[in-house]
Amino acid sequence: MRCKFCENKAYIKIHYPKMYLCVDHFIEYFERKVKRTIERYKLLKPTERILVVISGGKDSAVTAYILKKLGYNIECLYINLGIGEYSRKSEEYVKRQCELIDAPLHIVRVKEILGAGIGEVRTRRPTCSYCGLTKRYIFNKFAYDNGFNVIATGHNLDDEASFIFSNLMNWNTEYLAKQGPLLLGEGVFVKKVKPLYELTEREVVAYALAVGIEYLIEECPYARGATTIEYKEILNQMEEERPGTKINFVKGYLRKKSLFGQELEKAELHACEVCGMPAQREKCSFCRFWRLDEPINFKI
């Protein structure tokens, strides 16, 4: 097949809208879509300091690469979760990815600051649950302590569609009320954005290969059997039969998002007695889980 815009050999078939594109026109298409997402949802301003949370995988690497290419002021943060060989390999990829785009890299090692890696804690809480809590706390506090205006993550359309689907299946209205490409900052909570919000995982992979980004293919060993993976497979089947299902599902959710917010009551928050971050009890969830008595200072 030939590219829709020139006579060169097609590199990829875009399923929605249906078209074939060569490498050059696909890169142009992808970058234009990221720009449009940033403009449509008012995600970023040229003057903002952006912290890209990078993992070694394709999504965060592409996010850092493209924001740097578009001229934004970015630095990267890698949180080494202390998951044996997986974390070691991830860190190697992260270093190469940041060298490629000449972006400053900051590394926080969970095992060094908390005394145990993810998966090494004795708890009844699911590993993915406290891992998510730990990552969210660290990247927000790191950004706040160091004066970043925005945190950018690599969530793509497949991630968002499966997250919404999962929470609708379980009627988790609190999570549904907060989802979207932009989460505005408030107080010590730093603004969070998702520049790849309208791009599929398949398109992200194709872009990474097209521009020469190396990334870790292995999934976290604790992600195996996660329900979000099952939901992604279901949505992929639906997308195969009816292209455009994912983007229309996500856009429909954004139009009706306010319905979920009506059911929420804002919990009364006060400063955690250990770290000063917002908490519903004496300690915030992070300090309570990790049994901290002293705050962690991430200032560089």
Secondary structure topology:
Blueprint: E1 12-14, E2 19-21, H1 23-40, E3 49-53, H2 58-69, E4 73-80, H3 84-101, E5 105-109, H4 110-114, H5 127-145, E6 150-152, H6 157-169, H7 173-178, E7 182-183, E8 191-193, H8 201-211, H9 227-241, H10 245-256, H11 258-261, E9 270-271, E10 278-279, H12 285-289
Helix pairs in contact: 1-8, 2-3, 2-8, 6-9, 6-10
Q: Can you describe what's shown?
A:
It holds the Pfam family TtuA_LIM_N. This is TIGR00269 family protein. Zn(2+) 1 binds at residues 3, 6, 22, 25. The chain is α/β, with parallel strands linked by helices and 300 residues long. It folds into two domains: 31-264, 3-Layer(aba) Sandwich (Rossmann fold), CATH 3.40.50; 268-300, no CATH class. It contains twelve helices and ten strands. It has helices at residues 23-40, 58-69, 84-101, 110-114, 127-145, 157-169, 173-178, 201-211, 227-241, 245-256, 258-261, 285-289, and strands at residues 12-14, 19-21, 49-53, 73-80, 105-109, 150-152, 182-183, 191-193, 270-271, 278-279. The strands form three sheets. A six-stranded mixed sheet has the order 5-4-3-6-8-7, sandwiched between helices. A two-stranded antiparallel ribbon has the order 1-2. Strands 9-10 form a two-stranded antiparallel ribbon. Helix 2 links the parallel strand 3 and strand 4. Helix 2 (58-69) runs parallel beside helix 3, helix 6 crosses helix 9 (227-241) and helix 6 packs across helix 10 (245-256). The longest helix is centred in the middle third of the chain and has 19 residues, at 127-145. It is globular. The N and C termini lie far apart (52 Å). The model has no long low-confidence stretch (mean pLDDT 94).
